C-alpha cells in the first residue's frame, strides 16, 4: 500500500510540472505567436478577435486563440496553486480536501482536453495553409504541451481518486477494529455508566423517594392514597 507521504510528494511534483508547462505555453505564445502593438486592451473585441494591430498566428482565422490560450493558462495556474496548497492540510480520515482535489483535477483534465483539441485543429489548419515557417514549430509546441498538460491533470485526477479511496478504506478499517474491540465511535453518546446526573442514580430522585417513604409511614392518608 502506498504511504501518505508518497501520495503527497507525487501530488507536489505533478502540481509543479503543471505550473511549469503552463508558464512555458504562455511564453511560447507571447514570444512567437502573438504580436500586438501597445499594451493589452480590456475590450472584449480585442480579446475575442484579431485585427491589424493584434495578430495571433496560432490559427488562420479571425479568432484570437492567443487570448484564449492565456485564459486557459490562467485557470490552470490557479488550479495548480490550489492543488499545491491543499497538500499542506492534514490527511486524516476526515480530510475534506480529497473531494475538492478530485473534482478540480477532473475539471482541469476536460479543460485542457478541449484546449488541446482546439489548438491542434486550428494549428494544423494554419500549417497547411502557409509555407513552412518558424511559427509552425511554435504552434506544434503549444498543442503538444497542451496534450501533455491534459495527461498530467488526468494523473492528478487518478491520484486524487486513489487518495479518496484510501481514506475511505482506512476509515472502514478503523471502524471495524473498533467494533471488534467492543468500542464505537459513538460510544461517548451511548455511555450508560451510572452517575449522579443520570435518572437511575440521581441524588434528587433518591431524596424524593426517601421523602415519600417517610411521609407514607407518618401520614395514614398518604399511605391510603398510594395504595
TrEMBL record:
It comes from the Eukaryota. Keywords: Membrane, Transmembrane, Transmembrane helix. This is MARVEL domain-containing protein. Residues 185-227 are annotated as: Disordered. The keyword Protein transport does not apply. The keyword Membrane applies. The chain crosses the membrane at residues 12-29, 67-90, 102-122, 142-162. Residues 202-227 have a biased composition (Basic and acidic residues). Residues 192-201 have a biased composition (Polar residues).
Amino acid at each position: 500500500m502506498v504511504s501518505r507521504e508518497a501520495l503527497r510528494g507525487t501530488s507536489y511534483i505533478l502540481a509543479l510540472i503543471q505550473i511549469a508547462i503552463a508558464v512555458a505555453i504562455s511564453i511560447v505564445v507571447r514570444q512567437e505567436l502573438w504580436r500586438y502593438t501597445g499594451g493589452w486592451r480590456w475590450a472584449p473585441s480585442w480579446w475575442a478577435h484579431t485585427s491589424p494591430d493584434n495578430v495571433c498566428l496560432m490559427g488562420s482565422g479571425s479568432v484570437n486563440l492567443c487570448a484564449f490560450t492565456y485564459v486557459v493558462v490562467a485557470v490552470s495556474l490557479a488550479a495548480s496553486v490550489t492543488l499545491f496548497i491543499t497538500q499542506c492540510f492534514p490527511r486524516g480520515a476526515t480530510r475534506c480536501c480529497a473531494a475538492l482535489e478530485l473534482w478540480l483535477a477532473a475539471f482541469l483534465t476536460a479543460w485542457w482536453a478541449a484546449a488541446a483539441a482546439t489548438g491542434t485543429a486550428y494549428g494544423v489548419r494554419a500549417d497547411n495553409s502557409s509555407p513552412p515557417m518558424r511559427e509552425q514549430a511554435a504552434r506544434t509546441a503549444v498543442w503538444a504541451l497542451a496534450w501533455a498538460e491534459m495527461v498530467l491533470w488526468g494523473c492528478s485526477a487518478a491520484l486524487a481518486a486513489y487518495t479518496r479511496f484510501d481514506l475511505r478504506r482506512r476509515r472502514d478499517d478503523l471502524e471495524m477494529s473498533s467494533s471488534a474491540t467492543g468500542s464505537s465511535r459513538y460510544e461517548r453518546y451511548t455511555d450508560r455508566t451510572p452517575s449522579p446526573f443520570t435518572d437511575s442514580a440521581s441524588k434528587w430522585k433518591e431524596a424524593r423517594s426517601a421523602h415519600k417513604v417517610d411521609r407514607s409511614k407518618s401520614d395514614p392518608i398518604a399511605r391510603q392514597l398510594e395504595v
